[in-house]
What does this fold into?
Amino acid sequence: MASAVGEAVTAPSGRATVAWRGRPRGNPWRRPWVMEGFTWLYIIWSIVPIAIAVLFSFNKGASQATWQGFSTKWYIGNSVNSVLHNPSLHQAVIQTLNLAVLTTLITVPIGVGFAIGIDRWRSRTSTGLNFVMIFSFVIPELLLAVGLFLLVTQALTFIRLGTTAEVAGLVVWNISWPAIIVRARLVTIGRTYEEAATDLGASRLGAIRRVLIPLLMPAIFASAVLVFASTVDDFVIVEQLSSTAPTQPMSVLIYSNVHGGLSGPALNALATIMLFFSLVVAVVGFVAYRWMTRGERTKSSSAALTSIAGM
Amino acid sequence: MGRSQDTHDRRNRWLWMGLAAPGAIWLLVLFVAPFYVMMAVAAGGVNEFFQTAVPTWNPLHWSSANLSAVWHDMVGSGAFLGPPALRTLLYSASATVISLAIAYPVAYFVSRYAGRRKTLFLILLIAPFWVSYMMRMLAWIDLLQQGGFFNSALSFVGLPGHTDWLGGKSATVVLGLVYGYIPYLILVLYAGLDRIDQSLLEAARDLGLSKWRTFWRVTVPLSKPTIIAGTFITVLPMLGDYFTNQLLSGAAGTTMIGNAIEGQLESPGETGQGAVLALMLLLILLIPMIYYAVSTARASREFA
Amino acid sequence: MAGGNVKLESLTKQFDDVTAVDDISIEIQAGEFFSLLGPSGCGKTTTLRMVAGFEPPTSGKILLDGVDVGNWPPHRRNVNTVFQSYALFPFLTVAENVAFGMKYKSVPKSEINTQVAEALALVQLSGYEKRRPNQLSGGQQQRVALARALVLRPSVLLLDEPLGALDAKLRRTLQVELGALQKQVGITFMYVTHDQEEALTMSDRLAVMNRGRIAQLGTPDEVYNEPADAYVADFLGVSNLMDARVEPGGNGGGPCRVRLGDFVLEAAAGQLDATGAVKVAIRPERINLHPYEAGGANRVPGMVERLVFLGSTTQIFVRLATGSALQTLVRNDGAALPYSQGTPVSVGLPADSLRVLPDPGVSVAEIRDKTLGDQLLDLTSTTSS
It folds into this structure.
């Protein structure tokens, strides 16, 4: 019967032709305006609120809603409430950096080792361990935080709540980043390079050190960037495992002061600082990644970006 | 190729085990063990004096006191756990559906139609990744305040502009969940859609399918695994969320199961019940988590 | 460094339920260019990998200059490999790649640069020291891989289909160069390929492998002109295999008489004491086409089906009265061909070129399908096992 627009039709003479019944609707090569518009709307909805929040961290007044002029008092000016001068704000910034650096330094090496080891050690144990790692990726953070809290308070009480516990928990929570990213890259690299290295005289370990690790550097770096950003952002685990004020990073401070407590723009300032840290690391990571992969076949920027984002 | 690697690797077993050991130990001690402790506390008793939890380590001595207390709280008289549980499901389901509805077209557009501007779009899509969750919620708190932009905008167009958006509205919480979790979903969908071979779609068009039909009969089925994976990594963490509603609402009428868990954990004498609740949530999530783990592990091996 | 004798004794490799290499024994002399030829899956690469040390043998011995190295790891064997994908380290320059293995030979730093330069000169890549692999063409990368292996002066060089990824013209050029290089350096080359032209061109001796076993081992001339069985005959070039039956009443030692359909011909090559059903083979360049009416020994009437112009030669497809289809080849020397499509001819199959081969029990069509299929598989695959 009535065919959809644009289907081939048999002419009355019986011979199939490539005539089309009806006109093809619209230009098949036209730009998809609707989808593009939708995408831009999403992007605006996604970014503008944040831009406004950053803006308000520079608000002269104490309101988070009404703009009262530009000022950096929340960062350095105000002698009581600015980040520079207020001790609890100050400490929070330091603690965030502290946690992020420590966690990254621990998580990346053991995550990389885990990825290489699990990839090659074919046994049921390794498959099981891999599963555990994937679980840690997909489980709600609250459940892990609760478990860790109970572990620290009931069993391993020599680890007291505080920075040590926070770092330990953050490492577990983030180990899936290097494990998954490096593993994916390992699969792409294959075995030939290591074989070539052993053929030329390197021992197994030497081949890993001189050939595999350099080949993995971009992935290692990308995962380090992700672990850093993820830790700066982390809230649930550190909240559960924190104890006194100095062990509370910026994320916890913001959370506890949102409904009263420290004044609004100060929180915005903290959040902007967190944003700044993450962005710096992200940009450094992107640039470093491009530099490291310059010796390989040309990769488009989009490949670099998605690697940094963990895909 | 795979077979020759196996014989190769068997010789170097100890090396691989050694490399994986630190990570493995860390996972076992700090991921697996905590759940045993959780079970010991859930099945344990209470120190009457300090009202602290006393874990029972030996499975043979586990008690079900906490379990019945929680069960009572869920279905007995005066039950109060029902509503948060239901709300959790409702919020997560709506937030996930809305997220998918937004994320899929965006991801589809950027992966297939963005052309030369792909990098630009990717940067814009990845940017929220680097913005911490706190900041994203703070942004909306600022906007939705009584004197904030949103209400001003509403009154500007003539709509009532005095609603207390942050006072306990479910819509706000769902919005927060969507806003918070959607960047991950978009990137997962993007990665999956980007992988779809363009020539498959061209072949479909060549064989006579219209644009719409190609989409429904080729693109969607091909992206099904990605959609499922994306849904999983969005819904599963969302079910344990407790901070979004605290930030954006703070009222008792929007609490989720995560709040109940947290609340009981901190209440003196009820730590055990909090542990039970956490374990119940874990149990419900176990099957989807296993499914996700199996399909991910299988997928990564197929790429080898 | 003298030496380079490779001896494989009853070498077998099993992967779970598959026997990739089935009890093969080969002795390669020092300084020889030896090829392993066969389709994908015949076990040639697995054999090479066992000699290199990437696979432990299931049973059997690998002897390098008399020493059993079967269980030695690769880095301890004085053997180097050129990989099919070259495996150049992308994060190192050409010079650094070539110098990679020298670190393990305790060569003084000053010496390293000299030897690297020598190796690069050997492969005609002087001046490329500072380049990166991704800036080189396929042929250049292959040469760097060669230099990297040769600079370590191994007793044996193993090459795993090194020319597989290059286009035809470059392949031919490099084949000649590789052959010359081997003679110049004097090292034993063990070369794996599925391209029979390559193997015939470059080797001193070669082994044709099929399903983990050696079908025939010999010089290119022997293997091509005196194939031991139908598989080898059909794998190496066109064999024009036909089913035949040996006529009873043999003449003890002399040429035997075979029946092809309605015709009886004399065959003077191959397994002359065979009886019953056999296969016969004749190389295209040995077939002569005569005018239809002309008489003569060993002639079968036929018709020209198709002519294919190949440039320097013309391929002629002829259908015999027996039903078999044959290919023959004539050089294009400028004179016009006295036949065209449809011309009846008398096909001459000289007795001393008509070879009797044992019947493997499968039809000609099946053999052709197998060898053709294997060759197609090789064309479309980039790795072999």
Residues 80-266 of chain B form a domain with the MetI-like fold fold (CATH 1.10.3720.10). DSSP finds 13 helices and two strands in chain B. The CA atoms of residues 19 and 71 of chain B lie 45 Å apart. The two ends of chain B are 10 Å apart (CA to CA).
